[in-house]
Amino acid sequence: MYVKRSEYAKFYSNFKEQIGSGGCPVQILVGLDPDALCACKLLSRLLKGDFITHKILPISGYQALEKANKTLIEGNEELKAVILINCGAMVDLPAYLAVNDQFNVYLIDSHRPYNLDNIYEEDNRIFVIDDGDIEDEMTEIHEAWYTLRSLEDTEETRSQENSSDEESTNEEVNELSGNETDNSEDSIVRPRRRRRYSDNTTRKIEERKRKKEKYKQYSAVLADYYNGGTWVGDSVTNTLYSIASSLGREDNEALWLAIVGLTSLEINSQVFSRSIARSYKVLRDEVNRLNPPPLNKSGLARPHGKSSTDNSIHTEDEFRFMLVRHWSLYDAMLHSSYVGSRLRIWSEDGRKRLHKLLAKMGLSLVECKQTYTHMNMELKKTLKQSLTRFGPLYGLDEVVYQSFIRTFGFKCTLSASDVTYAISALLESGKSRLVLKKNNTARDIDENEDDYIKQLEDEQNEEWLHNFYDAYDSLDNVDAIEKALTIAMSLQRSIVRSGITLLEKRNIKTLRSFRIGLVTEGADLKVFNHPLALTKLTLWVAEAINQQEKEMGKLKHLPLVLAALQEEKDSYLIVGTSTSTFSSKDEDDGHGHNKFGLAFQEVANMTSAKIRMDSFEASVIECKKSDLGVFLESLSLKTL
């Protein structure tokens, strides 16, 4: 079943009634991504406001989901509701959760495609919270699913599916007309006559033919839906904000979480720019409504007037430079994927182009390498004008864009992208850099390899769980966010260093339908043992290559696969990206859908390679080191 946007308030009211009081009736299972983190925070605020006791458990993948089912759900008599945030939309949930009449399952997930049984089964006690996709864009798919389900319930349709058109028609004719095969001699020598059927028999034959055609037609509709690759819908934090708004419980805290959640999707190139623009327009209206400019003594508005208690949100023009308020201008530009890909900073000539751009803008390298807050105020005031004038000469046509800023009293000002980078860094590394953590677990001489790998995975999951809670707590603590910005800078340096190495050494190889690169050594290798970090590196390299090809007149680009060695586990973590990062001209027409999830699954089925597909991101897998060659060879034969 699914909950329409227009029914959010009614749904939440029914949810509260079903929960009742006493014990701990709600279990929240949440994926490990920034949008899910913000959504979980917003949901927790709603539940606390209604005094609903709940537990939160981060879930790293499908194995963790099954483990949570065994330890927290099965046999839990207090449980009334299980809420899944960004985990489980693409699978048949009853196969992973012991769903029964005691509790309901609520799914809030931006991963696509949906498993349609979760949405349209009437009595499965699963409620999918619709962000608008189901009601507005899946009418034909609903009709196809419902029609096929009805047809599959009849034995006639199943027999038609398993036989040829001619044989099926003949069998139906014999059955409907009451004729039986006569094996007597008379029947052999008797000349064949043209059979004549009653009008009723003919109508039944035609009706069954129409049913079979309809079966083929609707099967094709569902095949197109499932085989179109994976993509991301609206931000789950935005969905939670819409629920809060329908209840009249929206405020700046909830709005800021919604903005950060949406920004995380944009930064990671997960959604189409036109979709982002629509969502941002709604959020801008909310910002203006909830944050009117303060008044001075004469009663006139003071735009962005600050005070020690000012926690307002406002829109402001931003530069596409990473963490520019907290870094130097030079580093913010150098480590920005937008600037880096267009100036080709992985080469010496590219870095010279950056220096020339700064010189044309009247900025010395000494000035630019100071912390941005210490730069000359007059230079900062003219920076936007200078970039607008000289940026297009270097391909920086959209270097200025409108974003959201929040003031935290006199303490600091943070943009939505600042917070996104901070919480993402905490999810990847916790409060300290991953490479600085304790020594790895040593393997005993007599220890079985599988047991050793399982121990490593358990330790990794435990570490990721702590990282999640660090990031979760930081959303209420601006000091923690500021500290995390340093970690984000360090991680971005690792990404850019590794990306430059891959490009300089020409380690990206072009195959028939995709590009492949291996990260096998270097001081930053361990950083890319986390899917979020490796995904960022993949996107950085892909944008650099795509931009280079675009300048050469090539508009269609090959998707990219990066594989990072996990030394302790003797395996590779593999991430595949879609054909291109999304631009303002992109349409949601399937171009940009990620086809690697399907391709990985097909290769796993057709080869003996040891592959682990446990992530909620279908395009993230693990492959045994010794099987990588076989895996890539088979993958290269796929059309993406």
Describe this structure in words.
By secondary structure, this protein is of the alpha/beta class. Among the domains are: 321-397, no CATH class; 428-635, no CATH class. It contains 25 helices and 17 strands. It has a six-stranded parallel sheet with strand order 1-7-5-4-2-3, sandwiched between helices. A six-stranded mixed sheet has the order 12-13-14-15-17-16, with helices on both faces. β16 (611-612) and β17 form a beta hairpin.
Integer-rounded radius of gyration: 29 Å
Strand order of the biggest β-sheet: 1-7-5-4-2-3
Number of strands: 17
Major sheet description: 6 strands, parallel
Uncertain runs are: 175-194, 434-439, 581-591
Q: Decide which structural class fits the backbone.
A: alpha/beta
* Mean pLDDT, all residues: 86
SS summary, helix count: 25
Family: Belongs to the CDC45 family.
GO biological process, one term: DNA replication initiation
Subcellular location: Nucleus
Keywords: Cell cycle, DNA replication, Nucleus
Features:
640 residues, six-stranded parallel β-sheet, 12% strand, six-stranded mixed β-sheet, 17 strands, globular, alpha/beta
